[in-house]
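Can you give me the bound-state structure? Components:
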Amino acid sequence: MNLAQSFRRQSTPLILIGLVILVALVGAFTTPQVNYVAVNALVMVVTVVGLYIFVGNSGIFSFGHIGLMAVGGYTSALLSIPAEKKQLLLPDLPGFIAATTLAPELAILVGGLVTALVALVFAAPLARLSGLTAALGTLSLLFIVNSVAANWNEVTNGGAGIGGIPFATTRVTAVVFAIGAILVAWWYQRSGSGLRLRASREDETAATACGVFVGRERSIAFVLSGFVVGVGGGLLAHQLGTITPDAYYLALTFLSLAMLVVGGITTLSGAVIGTVVLAAVAEVLSEIESAAAAPGLREVGIALIMLVVLIARPRGITGGREVGEGLMARRKATVTVRAAQPRPGALRIEETEG
Amino acid sequence: MTAVQYIVDALSAGSLYALLALGIALIFGIVQLVNFAYGELIMATGYVLVLLAGAPLIVMIPLGIAAAALLSFGTERLAFRPVRGADPATLLVTSFAVSYLLQNLALLSFGSLTKTVNVLPSLTQAVEIGGVNLSRLDLVVIVVTAALLIAFTQFLRRTATGTQMRAAAEDFQMARLLGVRANRVIVVAFILSGLLAGVAAIALIAKTGSVTPNVGVNVALFGFVAVILGGMGSLGGAVLGGYVLGVLTVLLQVVLPEDLRAYRDAFLFLAVLGLLVLRPQGLIVATSRRTRV
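Here's the bound-state model for the whole set.
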């Protein structure tokens, strides 16, 4: 395989990585305000790509991932706030958490691991449920996490939340994690497990008949996506500097799903492009919202965009295709046409292998 | 609190969930849509009650219920009809977007502040029966729900439209081939589902007395959980799921020790997940939902 070929085969993640680097560069060369929006968009890329790993590959919508994100956010926050500060804020914290202070980047990764563990616990019931019931089952995950976060005062400080989280999500951190998330998702969707899960998304019965253990593949994707989303949660906590149960609830669930749907749920390109596009649109809308003093305008706009995409272009703006796939796909298409119209009396099989 | 009070509490909460679950299951059975925007029908009734505050009950209540039915009809026309026939996951997300849109439209028009309204002031006092104090409203809700459920069953069994709806829920394609008019059945289902939401909304708002843009979100979610619990697609299952959920809520309130009571909802949802692990198809499995290969 020559270099051009291998480049073409990996062109999707390369283009997407280029896109997130571009977002970071836009942040670097403009105002601090735009920079903040760009960093937030990158954090959302991590989150939505994490969501995509489960939703896109399994075809089951999840309303619980923002709950997982909260787990990552709280874990990372609690592990990275300096010990003296923690003593003041949360005097009843269990000893080992109170004593530990990790570097924020490390805490974010540990947050991802803890989230993956929580996801593992919930994967068992979800694996047993059929598609739609599983989607609604994930809602219970969101409520359980929210209810615990809002009431476990010794650890989460209840509804008031935790402040003083080190501002560690810089442009560079965010872009590095976004690239990592894209590579993990790309690797998973082309792995054996990913392909089997995608087969079950297209036709669960047929996939089962071919020997795919759907529940197992679903669980693997759920845990992996839990890890990535948990990392996203940590990044968000370290960008905002505070974490409250309400910040990781229905509003963020809606926004992340809208980003995925607008981009197109079945492709990684959809997850990344949808996030970047919607983050930009959302920012413009919130400018208008604050100028017109009309709270709710931003959300109305996002909901309308989402509805229009669902009705007019149900496969999202990427149309169900990975970016960079076009070149190869078009070549294949011409081959098919040639094979389908053989010259009379001169059917040669070699032609199909052009 | 005595046992009688607990039972009344459980039945009253269960009645509310059962009404909502029935409205949600009705739509789901026919068009495979899990209508997330169901909570916003409750909200619509709520704001109409706020706007009509002070008007006689005979005006307020019918108009309040009509608002939910009208909104239900409107969402079908504008949002759900264009995506009809898409896979259930897409429908689910569409209704999620509709729900969010309606909530934020309400936020735009009415603001985020809580509006208060006193719907049935005569029912807020307690009544003493056999030495225990019971809420009149709870008793009325239980009786009205029971009456509605009976009327609804009769409608489905005795009328032509009802029979067509049951046929459509069983096998929509087959029903159409036999001459059932799809649009008509679907529109009737949406309106009925809206009426049920309206009645539930009156009961809810009479109890809490307050309306916000997201007033319907939590109760509607309990409705969904009741539907899943009962077995998706089975109307009887949905009603049963509603009552089971009501009993579970009160049971947890009683059984949980004081310091864990704040986590009641977390335990409730854990219990529901646990039940689903044992019976992934729900309590009652509708024949139409079995996968045939």
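A couple of observations. Chain A touches chain B through 43 residues (CB under 8 Å). Chain A has 17 helices and no strands.
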